[in-house]
Specification:
Length: about 45
């Protein structure tokens, strides 16, 4: 969700986007953020 929400950074600054991805991965590893899990509901396509 965090990466999806901030994806516009990639267009403005690819170098900064790489840094953002590293920071998010680090936050997930440390337990500050949860790894995105897809949740499916009955009848959803």
């Amino acid at each position: 969700m965090v990466l999806k929400r901030n994806r516009s950074i990639e267009k403005g600054s690819p170098a900064l986007w790489g840094f953002v991805k590293e920071m998010v991965a680090d936050a997930v590893e440390k337990g500050y953020l949860q790894k995105e899990a897809r949740q499916y509901t009955a009848g959803a396509q």
